[in-house]
Prior knowledge:
This protein is α/β, with parallel strands linked by helices. The protein has helices at 15-35, 49-54, 62-71, 75-84, 93-104, 109-112, 134-146, 164-185, 191-213, 224-230, 232-236, 241-260, 283-292, 316-325, 333-346, 370-378, 397-414; strands at 40-43, 58-60, 124-128, 150-153, 270-275, 295-300, 351-357, 382-387. It has a four-stranded parallel beta sheet with strand order 2-1-3-4, with helices on both faces. The protein has a four-stranded parallel beta sheet with strand order 6-5-7-8, with helices on both faces. Helix 1 runs antiparallel to helix 12 (241-260), helix 3 packs across helix 5 (93-104) and helix 8 (164-185) packs across helix 14 (316-325).
Amino acid sequence: MKTDVKPVRKKIEATDLMNRIMADYFFGLNEAASTGRQKVAWCTSVGPAELLRAMGFAVHFPENHAAMLGATRLSTDLIPESNAIGYSPDICSYLTSDIGAYLKGVTPLSKTYPGIESVPRPDVLVYNTNQCRDVQDWFAWYARELNVPCIGITSPKNIDVVSDAHIEDVTRQMEALIPTLEEIAGSRLDMDRLREVVVLSRECTDLWKQVLETAMALPAPLTFFDGTIHMGPAVVLRGTREAVDYYRVLLAELHQRVAEGAGAVEGEGYRIYWDGMPVWGRLRQHSELFAGLGANVVASTYCSSWIFPSFDESTPLRSMAKAYLELFIVRSDAYKERYIREMLEKFRIDGIIYHDAKTCPCNSNSRYGMPQRLGKTTGIPHLVISGDLNDMRCVSDEQTKTNVEAFIEQLEEGK
């Protein structure tokens, strides 16, 4: 087993273009908030962004901001600020990081994008609980603090098959948002414009799926850790031409890598599936750990959560409802197990990593016997690592390193 090899991290050339696109997005948000030329809506990451964009809102995603707080390792010092006003250290560390940043008056945006001093002040907060209840509580706090309207969708959970009744329920809730949004925007919803935005979201999601599926190649041209970075436009810019154009560029580069047989991990010997959230404050460290062991984390449930094949401009609202109900995190364990089995076969996986994130129970799938059930039906070994998405006090670097090294040894012995 490789233990002393310095990993070669192959840079994706399109990264520079993505950074420029993301900079334009954040500067645009800042201008909208500071000049008042455009109303600002805050939206949960898998909320009705298409509806907001069609109505002319500049859209900010607090979960994206929270991930930045985690990646820049600011979160651990900010979480206690939220704990001090009554938010438990056991709830979502995205929530506690982001509210803590507000209370301390800090943001990683100010360092990365000079001239931006804070996140954009919202005119409305729009949530969808398809991920968890925490997003609703998160937005409700800002609604009280900033005295702005907070509206949203309460989604059903533990869905095996998405039914017409489920879709009808969420469609009606989405339609109920429109009068409030029209009043705040000062204009009526243009259904033709909504159709245009839904078309762009569908193009974005189709391209993002193709990007992730390039990792089916041997060797894979990208890693899960690359995916967590390059999913940025799919999260904050879906429904825009910029996201579509970017993924065409990225996809062309990855196809070229595949044609040349150029892998993201030199000497790829083991292919790993990652279930659960990334550990944002350890992306580079984990990337280098796996690469140094000749292992590539080639696929994940997390990055694939921004694939929405049901978007359809002929029925924009209904198709949005269906797309957001199909999200992996809200599905039943039976569905999740079927899905993961398909991914294991599709990406020719040798082993599975389950990240048991302390503050994210809804996106940790190792607590109710799923790894054991999948291991029995597939024969593929698994490892559960304990950690968190943002709270690095929950992460043991030495334990993670030791456990991952032992896991790769196990895979090596099984070959």
